[in-house]
From TrEMBL:
Protein origin, superkingdom: Eukaryota
Full protein name: Reverse transcriptase zinc-binding domain-containing protein
Positions of the Reverse transcriptase zinc-binding domain: 2-35
Length: 132
């Protein structure tokens, strides 16, 4: 928009709020489901901070009791990458994935980033998610 390109200033997911960094990556109802997905794997709840830098700090503190802290620490990047790819598909290609597909893409990306290979064995997926 700064360069004069006409773009919708509304969030491509909820279409209710302005698309800001904090809304898109932290507070939108869609991205909140992804954050909740990972906290639920660990059986914890987490209070979302207002800003992205606070979220990273809080997330890393929350993960101090994690079995595999390095995996816990990549979760924000996985969520943001998943949301960013989906957002760009909606913005530039007018293609929208349903929520269950977005969640699946997020988990697949997480497992791929953890193991550096495509994981299609459900047992391996469960082991990776269980290490959080
Ligand atoms: Zn939104």
């Amino acid at each position: 928009m700064k360069r004069g390109i006409h773009m919708c200033p509304r969030c491509f997911f909820c279409e209710l709020q302005a698309e800001t960094i904090n809304h898109l990556f932290l507070h939108c109802k869609v991205v909140r489901q992804l954050w909740h997905l990972f906290t639920s794997f660990r059986g914890t709840s987490w209070t979302m901070p207002q800003r992205a830098n606070q979220a990273i700090e809080s997330w890393n503190t929350e993960g101090s009791g994690s079995t595999d802290q390095s995996r816990w620490r990549i979760v924000p990047a996985v969520i943001w990458w998943t949301i960013w790819k989906e957002r760009n598909m909606r913005c530039f290609e007018s293609i929208s994935s349903p929520l269950h597909r977005i969640k699946t893409n997020c988990i697949i990306t997480f497992c791929y980033w953890c193991s550096l290979e495509y994981v299609d064995d459900p047992i391996v997926v469960i082991d990776i998610l269980g290490s959080l």
